């Protein structure tokens, strides 16, 4: 079965409230829907969320690189010739969200062709993941209120708290308020998106010991090489590399350099094929992983849970699967639901999703 065309559709869906964090903020999901067409009539779909503050991509760059470079290089290739597809994608540096959407759409086609859910093709370990909810910057009482509402509505008890503001007491007060409101049974961890220096991070980690956190992510820049290594060595919880370890090579460097002891796997930036490489590499090197969220909509979330639930190591920790709750609407005909703190994989061929054409008409920006 051959690839015949790759379609890119920019769309914009407003957020109910902005998500703020140390490296930026998101007010609307300005993503690109990617559809790969084949000569047998099957169409694979995936989402590309451009994150300029993390990878430098924009909607226009995603569309441009797919239309100008990837589509001409991939048209005519067999859908199952994944190594050839990736050899061609890798002739271009960067552009992780664009490459990942193409990769995941091809897996969607493979699953449809074989009448198997993608999660089964990947590994088929379990049928659901526990969900971790990400809390963006706000005042302590508002973040505590949101956490309580999310816990009471969806049964979620794991929260990733965005930190990295100055003075650091702003975020320490938030973490203390969350522990006070949620009690000991809640799992809390922090993500600084490189907002602090290594020494500020060290002060914060010590102050958070009585609060009890389970992971610390990108508190300071990995480019502050010695400071970061010094910080990671004194952390009493796994230290997660997210935006500093976006390729298999960066993951290796990060772990060997002592810049991290755990890795965030995001299907939005490594698709399924490269996420497999990252995951297997982490397993081989004895590093834990957490399934991260690239501020995904529902389609991206379906991809994250399909990958995470496919493997024991990827589903051990709660996955970051709930950012779509902040959006005012979405594109899928069958919405993603979270119940009892978990999100189930779709037991349907491929990714098991269909795009609502009325909604796409409403939100697309190219017509
Ligand atoms: C996260 O885990 O950092 C914010 C920036 C980004 O690249 O992803 C989000 C969430
Ligand atoms: Mg992060």
From TrEMBL:
InterPro entries: DgoD-like, Enolase-like_C_sf, Enolase-like_N, Enolase_C-like, Mandel_Rmase/mucon_lact_enz_CS, Mandelate_racemase_C, Mandelate_racemase_N_dom, Muconate_cycloisomerase_anti
Superkingdom as given in the UniProt entry: Bacteria
Protein source organism: Streptomyces prunicolor
Protein name: Enolase C-terminal domain-like protein
Pfam families in alphabetical order: MR_MLE_C, MR_MLE_N
Family assignment from sequence similarity: Belongs to the mandelate racemase/muconate lactonizing enzyme family.
Gene3D superfamilies assigned to the protein according to its UniProt record, in alphabetical order: Enolase-like C-terminal domain (3.20.20.120), Enolase-like, N-terminal domain (3.30.390.10)
Keyword Hydrolase: no
């Amino acid at each position: 079965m051959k690839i015949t065309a790759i379609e890119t559709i920019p769309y914009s869906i407003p957020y109910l409230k902005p998500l703020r964090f140390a490296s930026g903020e998101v007010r609307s999901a300005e993503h690109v829907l990617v559809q790969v067409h084949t000569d047998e009539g099957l169409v694979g779909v995936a989402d590309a969320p451009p994150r300029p503050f993390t990878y430098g991509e924009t909607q226009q760059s995603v569309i441009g690189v797919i239309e100008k470079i990837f589509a001409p290089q991939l048209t005519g290739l067999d859908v199952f010739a994944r190594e050839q597809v990736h050899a061609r994608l890798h002739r271009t540096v960067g552009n992780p969200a664009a490459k990942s959407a193409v990769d995941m759409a091809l897996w969607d086609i493979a699953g449809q062709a074989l009448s198997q859910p993608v999660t089964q093709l990947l590994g088929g370990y379990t049928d659901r993941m526990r969900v971790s909810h990400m809390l963006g910057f706000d005042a302590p009482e508002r973040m505590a209120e949101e956490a309580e509402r999310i816990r009471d509505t969806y049964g979620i008890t794991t929260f990733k708290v965005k930190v990295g503001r100055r003075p650091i007491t702003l975020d320490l007060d938030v973490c203390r308020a969350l522990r006070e409101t949620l009690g000991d049974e809640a799992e809390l961890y922090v993500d600084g998106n490189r907002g602090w220096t290594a020494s500020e991070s060290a002060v914060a980690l010590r102050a958070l010991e009585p609060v009890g956190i389970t992971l610390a992510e990108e508190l300071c820049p990995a480019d502050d090489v010695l400071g970061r290594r010094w910080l990671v060595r004194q952390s009493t919880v796994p230290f997660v590399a997210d935006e500093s370890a976006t390729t298999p090579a960066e993951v290796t460097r990060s772990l060997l350099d002592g810049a991290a002891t755990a890795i965030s796997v995001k299907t939005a930036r490594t698709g399924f094929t490269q996420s497999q490489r990252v995951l297997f590499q982490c397993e081989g090197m004895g590093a834990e992983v957490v399934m991260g969220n690239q501020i995904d909509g529902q389609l991206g979330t379906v991809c994250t849970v399909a990958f995470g639930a496919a493997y024991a190591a990827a589903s051990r920790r709660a996955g970051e699967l709930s950012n779509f709750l902040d959006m005012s609407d979405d594109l899928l005909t069958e919405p993603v639901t979270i119940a009892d703190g978990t999100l189930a994989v779709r037991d349907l061929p491929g990714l098991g999703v269909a795009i609502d054409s009325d909604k796409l008409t409403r939100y697309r920006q190219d017509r």
